[in-house]
Amino acid sequence: MKFRHSGIVTNDIERSISFYTEMLGFKVEKDNFETGSFIDSICGLKDTQVRTVKMSLDGEIVLELLNFQSHPSESDYGHNITNRGFTHMALTVDDLDQIYDLLSLNGLEFNCPPTESPDGKAKVTFCRDPEGNLIELVEEIK
C-alpha cells in the first residue's frame, strides 16, 4: 500500500491554489472540471460539478483541492485540532524560521513561533491555510 493524496474542499479555490503554490511551493499537476456518472458514483452525490486541482511536492502528488460548484458547503474555518477525524497535514521544511517570517508577513496566523521539541530533534509550529485548515510545519534538526 502507498499513500496517494489528501483532499481539501475549498470555497475559494483560486485563493487556495495561490497559497499552496506561492507560499508553500506546491506545483499544480492537474486541473480538471469533473461531472457525470463516475464522479456522482464515487462521491455519493447527484449532478456533481466539481473542480479538482491535484498538486505535488517533490514530484509526488500529495494534495487535491476540490471546489464543489454543485454542492456548496458552509465553511468550517477554525476547527479544533482535538476534533475527531483528519485534523491537519504536516510538511517538513528546510528553514522553518524563514517560512514563518514569510507567512507571517502575508497575514497568516500561527499558534506559536517555531518551537524546539523537547527531544531537540525538531522545530515545529502550526498555522492555518486560507480555508482554516491546520498545517504543521516541521524542521528536522540534525
Key words describing this protein structure:
2,3-Dihydroxybiphenyl 1,2-Dioxygenase, domain 1, 142 residues, 37% strand, four-stranded mixed sheet, elongated, 2 domains, 20% helix, alpha/beta, single chain
Structure report:
Strand 7 and strand 8 form a beta hairpin. The mean pLDDT is 91. The protein has helices at 13-23, 37-43, 96-105, and strands spanning 6-9, 27-35, 49-57, 60-68, 88-92, 115-116, 122-128, 134-140. Helix content is 20%, strand content 37%. The protein has three helices and eight strands; from the N terminus they run E-H-E-H-E-E-E-H-E-E-E. The strands form two sheets. Strands 1-4-3-2 form a four-stranded mixed beta sheet, with helices on both faces. A four-stranded mixed beta sheet has the order 5-8-7-6, with no helix packed on it. By secondary structure, the protein is of the alpha/beta class. The chain folds into two domains: 6-68, 2,3-Dihydroxybiphenyl 1,2-Dioxygenase, domain 1 (Roll), CATH 3.10.180; 88-140, 2,3-Dihydroxybiphenyl 1,2-Dioxygenase, domain 1, CATH 3.10.180.10.
